[in-house]
Each structure stands twice: as structure tokens, then as C-alpha cells.
Amino acid sequence: MKRSNRFDGESTNQVGAVGLKPGPISPAHDKLLFTPGPLTTSQTVKQALLRDYGSRDLQFVQMVRDIRRKLVELGQVSTTDYTAVIMQGSGTFGLEAVVASTIPRNGKLLIAVNGAYGRRIVKMTEILGVDLVVLEYPEDQPVRPSDIARLLAEDSRITHVCMVHCETTSGIVNPLQAAGEVVAAHGRVFFVDAMSSFGGMPIDLAECQIDYLVSSANKCIEGVPGFSFVLAKLSTFLKTKGWSRSLSLDLYGQYEAMEKDGQFRFTPPTSSLAAFYQALLELDAEGGVPARTQRYQSNFTVLLEGMTRLGFRTYLAQEHLGHIITTFHYPNHPHFDFDKFYRLLSEAGFLIYLGKVGQADCFRVGNIGRLFPSDINALIGAIERVLNEMGVDLLGDESASQLIDDKAVQPGL
Ligand SMILES: Cc1ncc(COP(=O)(O)O)c(C=O)c1O
Question: Which of 259, 271, 272, 296 is the most buried (most CB within 10 A)?
Fold first, then answer.
């Protein structure tokens, strides 16, 4: 099969597709997605979708094997210690598979929460009837490993600890290695939601003492939606046979089938996997995770400079900002109307992301996906034009300096 893994190093994205009408979508006119996923993908990833694959065909089975091996390598570990299990569905399905099938009936999960995705894990844990304890922080504060240590020392019934790495609600990055060290020191199992960070930030699973890491196809590896994947430490995972509370979300069952003959138990997302395989080749051609991290960091730097110049202010304090996604306060200007702001940007070909963080009115801009600093500059230019059109001058106007600052304070620790 002929594949292209060309990497240009600069944007080939079309911008400024003003006035798009609903109707058949031409790839040349795709809007740029400054979102946490689905993301803007390369033309060649999109082209990889244009194939029919038999789910039991040898070529497909081999491709799935290669994907699983490459995922383990991206985690900087070896297939003798870790495995990759692919789960149909979005990222949430992978998270729920870990909760549903890797915690024994008498187990207890400690969940560190500082955003909506942590709260979602709490919800699924409650629905599944797994015993839990929640360690909650305001959304603009990172998780503190010393708090995890305290709770583990106090409660010997806690068997597993879960933390979101990059909490996409705000973009805050929680301290992975320090948390992993604490969990391992107390002999518990460490489960990480690295949905929006894996592939866009270096993560060494062994160094961070991670037992289960979950991410999905349409995040920093820049594939299209269709599945999540779980990287599992074999010495922990192989003990979990028969523990599942669910048939379709049985992680061990899925692993066993994949190991036996390379096949999924139920219909696999063939096209999405083919696109993902192409995305992995392109990640490699770009220079792997370090090069991708650098591109996303450049996107973030250009975004922060541009938005600051326009008079916007970030929700997170400088020291907590990560490079995956950035949350900005609504400006407190009488002419600012978010719905109009969003619509005008969308009509100009740029999709930003909604986001209410706690009590603060905010919006988010993703730095990930097939986006380059030139795309970010194009977005900044469009934002400037849209603000002008709305009559919002954030720098020349006294009221602009009084931005909304009612940060979320949640009932806490
Ligand atoms: C940190 C995190 N966890 C979980 C999810 C949920 O993933 P999905 O919407 O694919 O189910 C997301 C989605 O953006 C996320 O960023």
C-alpha cells in the first residue's frame, strides 16, 4: 500500500474560508479546529480514510499489531512490560473500561479532581458501584501529591489512584511523576487520564510509575475519532482477568482476543484505525513526540503573545499554563457578546472552543492538531478583525482592564 508520510514543517491549511454555507464539505474548505479534539488533521490522514478494510483480513490485523506496538513505544517502554489495548468508542469508553474492569470488587478508587474530566470519572465510578474517595481542588489549582500521600496513609482500603494529566477544562497540567512516585511508594495502582496530553508531551510510563494510561485517536497523535487506547503495565493488568463489571468494556477480554488472533471481539473502527496508522507515520516523520511537543509549544507561545497584545487575559496564573489548550476570560466589555464572537470567527473559518470554568465565563483555544504558528497568527488576525467589527477595543477602553475575575472556588479538600 502506498502511503505518504511527507512532513512539510509548515502549515498547508487553508484559512479564511469566509462565509461557508452548510452543504457538502470540501476538504479544501475545512475550518481550522482550535479545539481539544476532534482536531484539524493532515490531508494524508484524511485520505487514509478512503479505504475498505476487512476486519479479519491479514493486512488489517497486521496494521492493528503495528499500532499497538508503536503506542507502547510512544510511552517510552517495552512490550515485555506494557501492552496497548484498543477500545472502540471515544476516550470516555477507555476510561470507563479501566474503572469497570481493573478494580477488584473490594477495591477503592481515589480520584483527584480539578476539572470536568475528573468529575466525569467520579460519575462513572459511582454508576459502576465502585467504592471511591474524591480529592477535590479549585479548577485553577494543580493536584498536590502530598494530599494523595496523606489520604493513602489514612485509608488502607484505597487500592487505585486516578489523576487527569492535562485537565482540558482549563489546560492545567498536573504533576504526573511526583504523583506516580507517591502512589508507587504506597504500593497502589496508578491510573492516568492522559487523553489530551499523550503524544503532545513526553511521558515515560515507567518513570512516572503508571499502571494504566488512557488516551484516544483524535488527540495529539492527530488521528480521527473512533477509539481510545489503554497502555497497561502487564504485571498489574494480567491479574485482572474476570474482574470486569461490563462485557463490552472488559479490558482484559479485549486484550485476550487481540493477543490470540489480533482481532477485535466486536466490530472495529477500521477507517479510524487506518487514519491513525497514517497519523503515527506522520508523527514519526515529524521527529516523534519531542518535535511535536515543540510545535505545540510554539503554537502556545504565539497564541499567548498575540492574545495578550489584544488585551485578553488567561484564566490560569502564568505558572500553571500548559501548552495543550489555553483558557481565556471573556473581556468585560459592554460590546462583547461571546455567541457573536464565536459565530463571526466560525464564518471566517476558525473554530474556537466554549468553556465555562467554575463561575468564570471563559473560552478555550487548543494548540494541538495539524496546526502551525502561522495558523495561530491567522487566528489572532481574525480575532482582531472580529473585535473591531464588534466595536470591542480592549486596550483603548478603561473598562477593558477590569476583566471578570470570579474564579471558581469549590467545596474542597
Ligand atoms: C482529559 C480528558 N479526559 C476525557 C476526555 C473525554 O474524551 P471523549 O470526549 O473522547 O470521550 C477528554 C476530551 O477532550 C479529555 O480532554
Answer: 296
117 in contact with ligand 1, CB cutoff 6 A: yes
Q: What's the mean per-residue pLDDT of the chain? A: 91
Residue with CA closest to ligand 1 atom 15: 195
Q: Whose CA is nearest to atom 12 of ligand 1?
A: 195
pTM, entire model = 0.91
- Specify whether 393 is located in the same domain as 337: yes
Query: What contacts 44, CB < 8 A, 6 or more positions away?
Result: 3, 4, 5, 6, 278, 282
Q: Whose CA is nearest to atom 2 of ligand 1?
A: 195
Q: Which three cell numbers stand for residue 371?
A: 496546526
Residue 79 Cα to ligand 1 midpoint, Å, equals 26
Residues 118-149 pLDDT 10s? 999 999 999 999 999 999 999 999 999 999 99
CA 214 to ligand 1 center in whole angstroms: 10
My answer on whether 225 and 113 are in the same domain is yes
- Domain co-membership, 375 together with 280: no
> Which CATH number fits the domain that encloses residue 396?
3.90.1150.10
Q: Kindly report, residue by residue over 351-368, the tens digit of the pLDDT.
A: 999 877 877 899 999 999
